[in-house]
## 1
Amino acid sequence: MRRIAVVPGSFDPITLGHLDVIERAAPLYDELHVVVVHNPDKEALLPIAQRVSLIESAVKDGGVGGNVVVASWSVGLLVDYCTDVGASVLIKGIRSQVDVAYETPMAIVNRDLAGVETVFMLPNPAHAHVSSSLVRQVAALGGDVTPYVPQAVAGFLNAS
Ligand code: PNS
């Protein structure tokens, strides 16, 4: 049976912390789907198609294995996407206890809903302070986001 996992997120935009988790997870599964999910609780900076395109560039530039699929999902439950593609695992990067507290209820509900397990992965601590919201703020105020995001994202945001 193929082992298929999903890394979901807003990815608005993808950061070096996200890319680190993707790079660590890709070799552990036959297929890794990086899925941009619309989060109605957050005001978006980038359209979903743009986020997908920047993830594709980051994954390609990062030399991540050819088993990574980039997609988006905006209708219905995330576990419905998992069921559609045959994924039994969700992967979340955990930077701190705050992330654990945020992710734990979702992990339990996703298991209840569809038997999809969540695997928490620890990214490189060098990226522990990096978040998409911080990147959005720096970019909005005209700062250089290069230290926090893949090159393709820095090029895009610094030129915007
Ligand atoms: O990058 P984010 O914004 O922290 O990602 C959060 C996300 C999109 C992964 C989360 O909001 C999510 O899983 N949304 C899917 C909606 C869903 O299925 N909810 C019910 C079970 S938790």
Note: Strands lie at 4-9, 31-37, 68-73, 89-93, 117-121.
## 2
Amino acid sequence: MTSPLTVHHLRCEYLENPLGLDEARPRFGWQLHSPRRGTVQSAWQVQVALSSQIFDKPVWDSGRVESNQSQQIVYAGPELAARTRYFWRVRAWDEEGNDSGWSETAWWETGLLVPANWKAGWITPDLPDDTSKAGPVPLLRREFAVATDGEITSARLYITARGLYDARINGQPVTDALLTPGWTSYGKRLQYQVYDVTPLVQSGINALGVALGDGWYRGRLGWEGKRNLYGDRLGVLADLHIDYTNGTTALISSDSEWRTAYGPILASDIYDGERYDARREQPGWDTPGFDDSGWSGVLSLDAPMDTLIGSVVPPVRRQEQIAPLAITPRPDGTTIVDFGQLLTGWVRLHVNGQAGQTVTIRHAEVLDRDGNLYVENLRTAKQINKYTLKGGGPEVYEPTFTFQGFRFIELGGYPGPVTSDSVTAVVLHSDLTPTGDFVCSNPDINQLQHNILWGQKGNFVDVPTDCPQRDERMGWTGDVEAFLPTAAFNLDVSAFFTKWFGDLNADQRANGAWPHVSPHVLPDNCYGACAWGDVGILGLWDLYQIYGDRRLLERYYPNMQAYLEFVRGYAGDNLLADKPVPNGFHFGDWLNSDAPSSNGMLATAFFAQSARVLAEIAAVLGRTTDAGGYRELAALVSHAFCQEYVSPNGRVDGGQQTAYVLALSFDLLSAELRAQAADRLVGEIRERKDHLSTGFIGTPRLCPALSDNGKLDVAYDLLLQESFPGWLYQVKNGATTMWERWDSLKPDGSFQTPEMNSFNHYAYGSIGHWLYRVVAGLDVDPSAPGYQHAIIRPRPGGELTWAKAEYASAYGKIVSDWSWEDGRFHLAVTLPTNTSATVHLPAATADGVTESGLPLVDAPGVGSICQSGDELLVEIGSGAYSFVVA
Ligand code: BGC
């Protein structure tokens, strides 16, 4: 008989069978499935072995561990060897003693682990190189022989670059990952990737080819037009290990044997785009037998090895292709193509013409009133790709080391009529698994959710960027602070943010301040802003809630302490953070539409909140004394805040919405003041005829502050507001992503100032988590992080007749799906095995409440039922439930 309990979805460091992990103690997670309601895991066992067949001599056998933990299980076996594939499997028992049997086998493979395991040296092309502007892309190649007498068991390429690399073996790309090695704080952390190239290597002569683009490393970065921020020499570092059945290994490395020449890409730049001359292609350059006698040699490059880290993040890949929605020829001979969706990526061009003809592709987010591309808001970023044909038949072109933010393109010089076969938009972003979906009875809100998701897709391009089009595209910390909880509903951002918080903390200054952007590429004083900097504490706490990631808390605890001391230091004895930020500055409630709140008030509020959250973190880490100290500090700062910024009748600071929102959501007020502040917030909103006025700091917390303080109806009024400023104003004006400003397109039809007007900026998409948590009612329980215990509490309003959220937590899918039907409230809930939830039903008593047709009290899987105000709190275990409240 098959067991009623099965184990599946094995993940190691959040990834499925990751290749190239440098983590000394990887963490495991798995999902369980049982058809029976209320099933929990009572024990688990993990085995790790060197072969998928032989588990009888495991490297590590945890033995049976009595525990319901099925995520964040830390490997506790002997030290791991480099370049080794470890296989692992799990077995679990439920609370009735049912044994799942062994799961399917999963694996992870270690990378080089320490710099000393690299055999390669850095090399750089010995070619004339003008580093003052975007130059041609060098190709590097090396041939190597593979013994014909031994069979290859496996071949691995370990590779990274100073710049971006595109690597190929025998004419085939080694990966579908793009923009590798990705963007990190290169001076301190440079990722390398590992590829399984076994199928590409052949016996006899082989060729390894690498093209190198400037990318973030030495291309133009930042609005000051600076280049070469990390260094001015391109370089590649590569070790190709080929293992034979006879136990020997051949090694081909980046060394003096390589040859180099410039290829068809004449110029390549992240912001400006690419110029490609197909006549300069060197057919066969990446295959064996190519004559490279006219090519130059390479030089060895003195570059650090101790910054190298294994890459543990899903790379950027092609995600979707979008066909033209409308094609409009223009009187000047150009053609405008509308793809119907603002996106990040590039255009694939299909063209047939004469050698030497050049097609120019210009990209823009919007058109102006005359139907021309509007490019002023790109500032100095050109976003232009140019392709020169080689002639002689159909040609296909995609750029390599750049990306564009666009919905519209203008094609110039295209030979023949432009048809829907001429161009395709290729959507690129980090390859993050979709985890959530929110949908409800209001189509405008559904479009808002669409826009939030596309704002995220367009900006999660290896780094969480502010925008993907102008001369910026940076990892703004404040934008992450606002958006992280929403981001984590939509896509699996666990590994993505593990990488980014690594950079943030690598960029932390000795005085404890975190930068405005990470990777940090701005002037020296771009540090220490409140909210922006606080993401180092608040964002990690969010990740802990969402994924249960205690390790990140542990790893960066000293950094968090240093930050808090930094703030405490400049706040001084009276604990008000109203003094100048040492070698830094604040942004305030960025892009708010009322009188600015005082920076001192905002910074003091964040000081209190970060102290309070650090106290919680310390408690999770078992640092009880620290926890007490930070709790006390939080109380003192809250007190100082109230003394300085709150009047006895509940007015906060200048009376801005954000002032009330922070005081409420950071719990800075006494109960009495709290009620007054909530009323005043409502008054402020009503005075503005149900419009918000908040910026990057207030917006993410605005609707939660209202719904948490008995003002749910006001939150819905804001959500549904169709005129400026409000979320649906954008929707009603045809947005397909989130805008940077509430009025990026002004009510009079003109554009906001081109100096700062992105149509793809996710920060105001931070309403998204409220849609999931409050409108649909799918929320995390802070006391059981990672959703092992969830809170299901739909809060209907705004004339919605139904709403549904799904979220693929680490434990499996959670669903909260409510509707009003025939005057009765229906709620369908699904919980994965080994989890439970408290369901809040809008019912005064259990009488008349049914679950799957049975009286609630008789329903299997339903535990305690208790009354709290006008709600019924029902404890349920895993399974699918269907409640009806009469
Ligand atoms: C960015 C924002 C960022 C802000 C900081 C802008 O240029 O695009 O998203 O948070 O600067 O004030």
Note: Residues 779-885 form a domain with the Maltose phosphorylase, domain 3 fold (CATH 2.60.420.10).
